[in-house]
Amino acid sequence: MKSTASLFRALLAVSMLAGCSSYRPTPAAFHEVLDQPYRLGAGDRVRVTVFEQEGLTNTYSVDQSGYLSFPLVGSVPARGHTAQQLEKEIADKLRQGYLRDPDVSVEIDRYRPIFVMGEVGAAGQYSYVPGLTVQKAIAIAGGFTPRANQESVDITRDINGKVMTGRVVTSDPLLPGDTVYVRERLF
């Protein structure tokens, strides 16, 4: 009888500790955004090519307010647009008294950086490359420290203007602008 009471108290203590953890399931939108076209944001750099217009063809950065400063037409909204939407936006503005039928092409030259924090060798800001996973980002940041929880990490991601945090496994893909936080393990 005494061992049953001790077992019950131990189970109760474990369940209470489990209830105190800050774990929340990853929101559905967190992984849905991976299957959508890439949307530009502050810090991205794009290569804009205007056919037969060498003076307009160049590399441009999306500024902090989400705009691209383009010759002749001024500021062009870029934040939240895909490369194809930006092509159309620039072409429409050039059609308004500058070029008769502009042929515009936009490709991403450099993505905005990712950030790796917590129990890693060298926390900081790192360049994003397509195909980057959590595990690869941690390797770039000097690997796990001896105290690191190597099972899962927290990722903070901006999805349609809303900042969300979710816990994922290390094989999950990253997006430009993500912040990876490697937690400390308990034991």
Give structural notes:
The radius of gyration is 23 Å and the shape is elongated. The chain has helices at about 1-20, 30, 85-95, 135-140; strands spanning about 45-50, 60, 65-70, 75, 105-110, 115-120, 125, 150-160, 160-170, 180. It is built from four helices and ten strands. The relative contact order is 0.16. Helix content is about 25%, strand content about 30%. It has two domains: about 45-110, wza like domain (wza like fold, 2-Layer Sandwich), CATH 3.30.1950; about 115-185, Outer membrane lipoprotein wza fold like. Strands 7-6-10-8-9 form a five-stranded mixed beta sheet, with helices on one face. The chain has a three-stranded antiparallel beta sheet with strand order 2-1-5, covered by helices on one side. A two-stranded antiparallel sheet has the order 3-4.
In brief:
The protein is of the alpha+beta class and 187 residues long. The chain contains four helices and ten strands.
Keywords summarizing the entry:
single chain, 187 residues, wza like fold, Outer membrane lipoprotein wza fold like, 3-stranded antiparallel beta sheet, 4 helices, 10 strands, polysaccharide transmembrane transporter activity, Poly_export, Soluble_ligand-bd
